[in-house]
Amino acid sequence: QKTIAKIATCLELRSAALQSTQSQDEFKLEDLKKLEPILKNILTYNKEFPFDVQPVPLRKILAPGEEEHLEFEEDDEEGGAGAGSPDSFPARVPGTLLPRLPSEPGMTLLTINIEKIGLKDAGQCIDPYITVSVKDLNGIDLTPVQDTPVALRKEDTYVHFNVDIEIQKHIERLTKGAAIFFEFKHYKPKKRFTSTKCFAFMEMDEIKPGAIVIELYKKPTDFKRKKLQLLTKKPLYLHLHQTLHKE
Q1: How many CB atoms lie within 10 A of CB 192?
Q2: pLDDT exceeding 70 applies to what percent of the chain?
Q3: pLDDT (tens digit, 9 = 90+) per residue, 204-213?
Q4: DSSP tag of 209
Q5: Homologous superfamily assigned to 114-244
Q6: How many CB atoms neighbour CB 109 within 10 A?
Q7: In what ranges is there compositional bias, type Acidic residues (predicted)?
């Protein structure tokens, strides 16, 4: 378990290196390849780990779909689970926002301000944050995934964020049918893992300057948008504000 946790740390370091624009102190592909023999012999590996890293801390790593199974009895809204990519992998530390890309003539960049999300139990959510990703029709990432910092405050039926997300691709370069996903996550102390509570998404024809309100759907996050179920019949939404930057 310790070895797997250290491998998880190395994968996170490699992921961070791929998303970084600076070359020093990166976790290189050659480093990653050193983990292959360890993975192949994971049950019998007893040598010293090749990197001085700390195991991923106190995160429960679940098999795909296991989180939904564990939480099914807690869901207070009726209905089953949709098909999509599992949200049961260990969550990263919130707050991995990336800067705006350099502008290019004739190309448009999008800044989304996440204002607030409406939830009937907003005040009970612990360390809530939102994971933002841009996916194609097959659920494949088109840009690096970003996490907001933990929410600013909880008030009545709203969790307030007021944070800007810089979409990491010019709008003209996004593939047809792409969508921007927002996964609302919070920490569950009883189970000691971060859980996705609900998600929302915005399609390309909804990209326009100004305020927009989008509906919330039941987990698991359905990146392919095949079996969508509203989180609740109550009028609860994710409130966003879009700014377009064009040279």
Answers
A1: 10
A2: 80
A3: 999 999 999 9
A4: S
A5: C2 domain (2.60.40.150)
A6: 20
A7: 69-79
The DSSP annotation for the chain comes to -HHHHHHHHHHHHHHHHHH-S--TT---HHHHHTTHHHHHTTTT--S--SS--PPPTT-----TTHHHHHHGGG--S-S-PPPSS---SPPPPS----PPPPP-TT-EEEEEEEEEEE-TTGGG-EEEEEEEEEE-TTS-BSS--EEPPSPSEEETTEEEEEEEEE-SS-GGGSPTT-EEEEEEEEEETTTTEEEEEEEEEEEGGG--SEEEEEE-EESSP-TT-SS--BS-SS--EEEEEEEEEE-
Strand-by-strand arrangement of the 146-147 sheet: 146-147, 126-135, 179-188, 193-203, 217-218
